[in-house]
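Saturday, quiet lab. Running sequence design on the structure tokens for the scaffold JK sent over.
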């Protein structure tokens, strides 16, 4: 009986672990001017907060950005992320503003090459 159930359980397990198709998984980045901080002492020295971000149980450095609110068309122009104005439709050509901090987690509507799209990072 277990031989019949095992393949079904395996398929169900794999399906449960897959990300939904509409979500784009991206790796957090450190933007221009914000070096990746990997330890608490350096984080605190830079004025950051050493805390758990996203689902990972490993603490990370959360820094405020110096370019918050600056006009942008891509996150490469920001220390954090280039965020679309509230109410923007995905796929719209739009200018954004640089985020207030370096936290890439959660669902955000980012601007990439001048186009808005919602991205969720766990």
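Result came back. Writing it out in full:
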């Amino acid at each position: 009986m277990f031989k019949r159930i095992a393949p079904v359980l395996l398929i169900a397990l794999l399906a449960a672990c897959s990300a939904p198709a509409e979500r784009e998984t991206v790796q957090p980045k450190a933007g221009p001017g914000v070096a990746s901080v990997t330890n608490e002492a350096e984080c605190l020295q830079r004025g950051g907060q050493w805390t758990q971000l996203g689902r990972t149980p490993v603490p990370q450095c959360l820094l405020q950005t110096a370019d918050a609110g600056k006009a942008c068309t891509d996150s490469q122009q920001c220390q954090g992320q280039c965020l679309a104005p509230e109410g923007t439709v995905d796929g719209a050509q739009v200018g954004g503003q640089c985020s207030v901090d370096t936290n890439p987690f959660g669902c955000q509507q980012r601007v990439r090459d001048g186009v808005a799209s919602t991205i969720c990072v766990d």
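Notes for JK: Residues 5-10, 12-34 have pLDDT under 50 and may be disordered. The beta strands are 49-52, 59-62, 71-72, 82-83, 96-98, 106-112, 115-121. Ask whether to fix the surface positions before the next round.
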